[in-house]
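Dear support,

I submitted the protein below through the web form. The confirmation email said the job was done, but the results page showed an empty box. After a refresh the structure appeared. I'm attaching both so you can tell me whether what I see now is the final result or a partial one.
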Amino acid sequence: MKIDAPWGEWFVGEWVDTVRRGKVIWPAELAADRDRFDAIPYGEPTAKQMLEFLHSEDGKEQIKLTRPKGKWWLSRDTVVNAPWDGEWRAGNWISHMRSSRGSWPDEFADVRDRFDAIPYGESTVKQKLDFLYSEDGQKQILSTARGGQLRFCRATKLDAPWDAEWKAGSWIYLIKRGQVEKTPEIMAEWGRIKGLLKRLGEPTVKEKIDFLYTEDAINQVKGLHKTRKWWFYYATKIKAPWNEEWAVGEWISNVKSGNTPWLDEFAADRPRFDALPFAEPSVKIKLDFLESDEGRQKVVCAEGSWRIRASTIIDAPWNGRWRVGTWMSKFQDKWPEEHDAERNRFLALPYKVPRSNR
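What the results page shows now:
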């Protein structure tokens, strides 16, 4: 290399080379300038210099210009304008170094982390998960999911650093189906992967019931009632992890009516489902409450003794102002046949018949 210097045409490259090789002795009086000389970029760049450039703003901007939607992600054919080469094949260099990891030079020991941080080729499991759990990834999931929830479906596509239309849902689906080999890399991240698997597709019956018994769901249901009762009706809708307006009341109704079949695999969860307080309580539920310590106390508080009158109103789990007296009065003369098994329990309640009915 030669340049025009104040003293004429100067073969600067040859001079730098002879000094570096020790063919020219560095004058003692210029010792203070040696650091400046050593800082002159010359010859084949070191691994550190290459990585510093790739991580620099200039390097990143050039790489983004070569990628769809301006991604900082290198492929094997990535070429950039580096200080040491106007057409440096950066992607080819990274590819070569990755394929020869076992014989990396000693100088790489201090820069391995920076090299591994370069986004290149097929994304790693860790890179995929880092993105899915990042603020950007979470926002994209929310914007694509039904109801604005952190939920995936098989068709979910995201604008990832390595692919503007990355099939994130398909990747998670294949893992769930066991079609992705459980490599050491996968197993090392299994905890985070499990967190994503729970958010794939329609929630299971168990997931729905587990959620309905959480403090969040219970408070939501209570907030729908003036008396803050944990009670579901057909029209009840709440915000669930998979749907911002989950029609939970409709789902419960369909299961109870048989319109939605109950799968055998969830047999163990049926008792918890049946225990959900839904719609108009049955005669048995009402009698169970009136015979309970809580029910007795409610009546006593309303009437001064455990005596139910036609005008008695109490705070029941399904209604903060349940007209229990009106309910009992309705069944004094005509008891529905379908509830014959509960007739004796009903008659045993301390109900005071109004004089006009005697």
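Response: this is the final, complete result; the empty box was a page-load delay. The longest strand covers residues 85-88.
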